[in-house]
Design a protein that fits this description.
The chain is 19% helix and 26% strand. It is an alpha+beta fold. The chain folds into three domains: 55 residues, RNA-binding S4 domain (Structural Genomics Hypothetical 15.5 Kd Protein In mrcA-pckA Intergenic Region, Chain A, Roll), CATH 3.10.290.10; 87 residues, Pseudouridine synthase I, catalytic domain, N-terminal subdomain (Alpha-Beta Plaits, 2-Layer Sandwich); 82 residues, Alpha-Beta Plaits, CATH 3.30.70.1560. The longest helix has 9 residues. Bound molecules: uracil. Uracil (URA) binds next to helix 5.
Length: 249
């Protein structure tokens, strides 16, 4: 993967970005002869290396550089969309294979919402995906208590007024994505093009229905891989990343 610094970088920065400790810990490790570059022990942690070409090891273990990482997570319930939290496990902590220490979730899903969440350190892509100007589609499966009124699809299409007076952009409602498992419950697929706080739940509330289960199915061109159980993740494929980037230039 490309080096976003475009060439050489300091050895201590390289190792800190790859989660090998703070710069002072890395300096000590170098002094103690634990770090090698291209097989030769390196005592100067401030020297420059080429992260793509040079082979760096810590205690003999190779450290691969990744300028950017992109993971698709099927977010489970009970986990927060944050980088750190005192009470709850965060979505970033679920990415056990992560190399970088600066990963974050692109947008937020509520603690009780499941489904697609992109985890990356690519701030530029995140910014573009979340920009209110780009209107990136987000598709959700929502199971509601009761049934939406017969004219719900039309009202969502026209944009509806939330309880605080804000009016949503047009959204698309499809009925019965899957059969709701129990009577008095209905399943819908809703596509929205913005990301207001609790937006889907509030849109349903505005039409008199409570959402009892919510799962994000897609964001732009990126679709949740249905092989991923809640809590599982995988890196994005090159193709998925390319399409996602193209969709929000
Ligand atoms: N809308 C919601 O209400 N909750 C989410 O987590 C995402 C969209």
């Amino acid at each position: 993967m490309a080096d976003k610094n475009g060439g050489t970088m300091r050895l201590d920065r390289f190792l800190a970005e790859m989660g090998e400790g703070t710069r002072s810990q890395i300096r000590d490790a170098a002094k103690n002869g634990r770090i090698a570059v291209n097989g030769i022990l390196e005592k100067r942690s401030d020297r420059k290396i080429d992260p793509e070409a040079d082979q760096v090891t810590v205690d003999g273990r190779p450290v691969q550089y990744a300028a950017y990482e992109y993971y698709m997570l099927n977010k489970p319930q009970g986990v927060v969309s944050a980088t750190e939290d005192k009470r709850y496990t965060t979505v970033v902590e679920l990415i056990a294979e992560r190399k970088r220490t600066d990963l974050f979730p692109v947008g937020r899903l509520d603690i009780d919402t499941e489904g697609l969440l992109l985890i990356t350190n690519d701030g530029d892509l995140a910014h573009r995906l979340l920009s209110p100007k780009k209107h990136v589609d987000k598709r959700y499966l929502a199971v509601a208590e009761g049934t939406l009124p017969a004219d719900a699809a039309q009202r969502f299409k026209e944009g509806i007024t939330l309880e605080d007076g804000t009016v949503t952009l047009p959204a698309e409602l499809e009925e019965g994505g899957v059969a709701a498992a129990e009577p008095h419950r209905s399943a819908y697929i809703l596509t929205i093009r913005e990301g207001k706080f609790h937006q889907v739940k509030r849109m349903f509330e505005a039409l008199g229905c409570r959402v009892i289960y919510l799962k994000r199915l897609s964001m732009g061109s990126l679709m949740l891989d249905e092989d991923l159980e809640p809590g599982q993740y995988r890196p994005l494929t090159e193709e998925e990343l390319k399409k996602l980037k193209e969709g929000c230039t």
